[in-house]
Amino acid sequence: MSVRRLAKDQPASFAFSEATMDAAKVWIAKYPQGRQQSAVIPILWLVQKQEGWVSEPAIRAVGELLGMATIRVLEVATFYTMFQLEPVGSVALIQVCGTTPCMLRGSKDLMAVCEAKIGPKNHRSADGRFSWEEVECLGACVNAPMAQINDYYYEDLTPETLTQIIEEFASGGAPKPGSYAGRHTSEPAGGALTLTDPALYDGSAAKPITKLPNAPEPAAS
To answer: Which superfamily does CATH assign the domain made up of 18-79 to?
Structure first.
């Protein structure tokens, strides 16, 4: 496990927005009295959604909100790689999967595109709009290679399609997530080859059960 540290440059302060605080209170209320600290992960996630990353002042604020020592919140924020510990691109954070299935299908070529279009990994682009990093398995191996961009999965990528996606983000667009090979969810490349009868899915083949097998006959009244 790599050592994760807070960013060298930190903001002077942090304040929960009204919407973030309202959502935090909802999460805190989910836990029984005395167990509110269990909400630390979702509240850190809310902070990240508000700011784009988790700063040291934000960690202190979460600790104060939950009655936790700052070091306990810091332990959580630095352990889970889902929490960004330095500012990320304001338009897009691109997380390229580098685990074996994606690597075998060309993830290194996707990383080369990111480096050429954005710059070194784990740093923001010169204009602050983009950043990228290599991550471990994101669980979409059948649609490798893929990347998570902000909150969505972009799958079956090639250097050309990733370049197109980055350029669309840069121009203010919102590229459609999902497969860029034209397949539906995780079906085989070229389309489904089995279980293709539409009647299997439209409910027409279902028959109502009037009596469970081996169920006793109702008693006579």
So the answer is: NADH-quinone oxidoreductase subunit E (1.10.10.1590)
Helices (H) and strands (E) in the chain, counts: 7, 5
CATH fold of the domain at 92-179: Glutaredoxin (3.40.30)
Where exactly are the structural domains of the chain?
18-79, 92-179
At a CB cut-off of 8 Å and minimum separation 6, what does 139 contact? none
Burial of 126 (0-12, 13-18, 19+ CB in 10 A): exposed
Dump the DSSP string for 52-117.
Answer: SS--HHHHHHHHHHHT--HHHHHHHHHH-TTS-SS---SSEEEEEE-SHHHHHTTHHHHHHHHHHH
At 31, the amino acid letter reads Y
User: Is-above-0.90 flag for pTM?
Assistant: no
Q: What are phi and psi of 114, to 5 degrees?
A: -60, -45
Q: Who contacts 67 (Cβ-Cβ below 8 Å, separation ≥6)?
A: 36, 37
Cβ proximity of 38 and 31 under 8 Å:
yes
* pLDDT (tens digit per residue) in 130-164: 999 999 999 999 999 999 999 999 999 999 999 99
